UniProtKB/TrEMBL annotation, chains A, B:
Protein name in UniProt: Arginine biosynthesis bifunctional protein ArgJ
Subunit structure: Heterotetramer of two alpha and two beta chains.
Domain of life: Bacteria
Pathway membership: Amino-acid biosynthesis; L-arginine biosynthesis; N(2)-acetyl-L-ornithine from L-glutamate: step 1/4; Amino-acid biosynthesis; L-arginine biosynthesis; L-ornithine and N-acetyl-L-glutamate from L-glutamate and N(2)-acetyl-L-ornithine (cyclic): step 1/1
Organism field: Nonomuraea salmonea
Amino acid sequence: MSVTAPLGFRAAGVAAGIKSGGSRDLALVVNDGPSRAAAGVFTANRVQAAPVLWSRQVLSGGRLRAVVLNSGGANACTGPEGFQDTHATAEKVAEVLDDSAGEVAVCSTGLIGERLPMDALLSGVETAAGQLSRDGGLAAADAIRTTDTVSKISFKRGSGYMVGGMAKGAGMLAPALATMLCVITTDAEVSAEELDTVLRAATSRTFDRLDTDGCMSTNDTVLLLASGAAEVRPDLAEFEERVTEVCADLARQLLVDAEGASKAIAIEVVGAADEDDAVKVGRAVARSNLLKCAIHGEDPNWGRVLAAVGTTDAEFEPDRLNVAINGIWICRGGAVGDDRSKVDMRPRDVTITIDLSAGPHTATVHTTDLTADYVHENSAYSS
Amino acid sequence: MSVTAPLGFRAAGVAAGIKSGGSRDLALVVNDGPSRAAAGVFTANRVQAAPVLWSRQVLSGGRLRAVVLNSGGANACTGPEGFQDTHATAEKVAEVLDDSAGEVAVCSTGLIGERLPMDALLSGVETAAGQLSRDGGLAAADAIRTTDTVSKISFKRGSGYMVGGMAKGAGMLAPALATMLCVITTDAEVSAEELDTVLRAATSRTFDRLDTDGCMSTNDTVLLLASGAAEVRPDLAEFEERVTEVCADLARQLLVDAEGASKAIAIEVVGAADEDDAVKVGRAVARSNLLKCAIHGEDPNWGRVLAAVGTTDAEFEPDRLNVAINGIWICRGGAVGDDRSKVDMRPRDVTITIDLSAGPHTATVHTTDLTADYVHENSAYSS
């Protein structure tokens, strides 16, 4: 299902020979309309890959006919030649679809600093074009994997329309955005401006609150395409809810599959003076290597939580902080609370609740533990 | 030598029974004058241990007769009772020295969130007072170790005076300050105000530029005590240089002994518009888990360097960034530079040079690689 769950979309995923090993590495998603409205959200990193620079420009027109995605190479830090490669890729897609390159987004993921094998990539585009189909969503989701162990797909039904999506991302996940590629489709009738508003709202509360290793990528891209093929003009609040659900579902799949992780940690910040404070505190805690190691060792080390909270400028008094791990309030008033031996650290899911005692606002940030496997994957694999 | 290298200081290090296992865990450093001028720099963490709150207050008077330090417990997040414990410790030192508790600094290091065993600690103070001697500096340095595998001491000779120091710290090292305790002594005649200026300048360019795991402690303390016993009024520029040398030497020892590290990484930022930009970029790169894993795997992954630089708001253009690793400029103009196979990654010391091409300013930040041993030490050891 994935991106082809909504009407009006075809997709394909093929092995173009960009990756060594012969697995799928090129995906094509085509919007057959009648609408081509689209929006995109991109990495906040100032070092941006060529495909990000290109697609950002394309999206300024608010229309997309197609998205071409490759794994096996990020085409980041590749200079003007890398940008020409992205341009040539879009032109090739335009040629096989008999359409304009100015409505073709390009996404790349893989190693930074190497040129893409363009002969393989361009002939892969031709192969993919020949295999485009209404049930190509799964193959497309498979083709964008790098160190992902499984494909990530999702779809939700609205009132008379569908929202579908696929994503990749396993390491380098951090706010604004998680390191990932994501394509979301819908057959509802929604304008480009509305898609933009909805996508920003949905990503800010899902992908933006995922931080597995604090590292921000050069290639993060989330695209939202509307075909209008269901001929339904949705209630925008409901539509935003469905898109947010698809984003949250994909974000959850990214988290569970994060490189080397053995725990999925939800950091719930409550009692914040405002939502920004809650997010700030959640992120600071999510980025504490010491805490992430402790959770890996199944040690409910609330001292490391407080040490991380204390690095922020959020509104709180140190002696009014409360911390629960898996429901046991082991820190009360900034000091020892309930018996830490009552905390069951064995489940894969760990919830850390931090009460700032400063107001009514809340936010949840998701992260993973830090493991020897993470170190191994990221010291052995050049990415 | 250590803190007893300068005239006018006695020290002792004893096993008080705070740590299980019977190793030394309590140190006492006494300034016999004639001067008692002193200054201190403390953690920027808003969650501060009781001894930090106490010693900050004591130092506002600009005078110190003694410093008592314990390992085996941080006395952080221990509430009003923890503060009373610190106060009682200072009173005990005052009693055995027949002096005022208002001129006794207290430093603690170890696990957060547990009360100290006060009976053991107070009788340890008595024992230490009985063992104070002019050659007690080594025993004192030994007593403040936690996961440190070796004692850290240093001394430098000025024109007619000495500067000596000891430090502890192996994990949780991060800017402002590295997680550590440090006591520096001198027999020069320097006022409290001058000591404060010199200490801030020295720490800002040494301990503040050490970031092994991005985690900021609740207990960091650096103290500088002057006895005036050499009866020499130093040239202040030379004195600052000597103090900075002692700090740099101790910082280097902390870095080499950092938990689980196999590489010492110097991140040299050059071509910055100002020094703040250079430090900001150095810290962002020092905090990239992905880069630290790559260096551990001896992979000269400049793409991860650029991805980290791109998260900052420092002045630079992405296509004018140059990166050298161990002297080989493998990234030029934001893209591939010299052959990466020329980089020799085998030495323990790795230098990453980042040229922002934005001005004449420079700074160097020091960090370590991220290893499975780090994960192991910090998931198995509650601290």
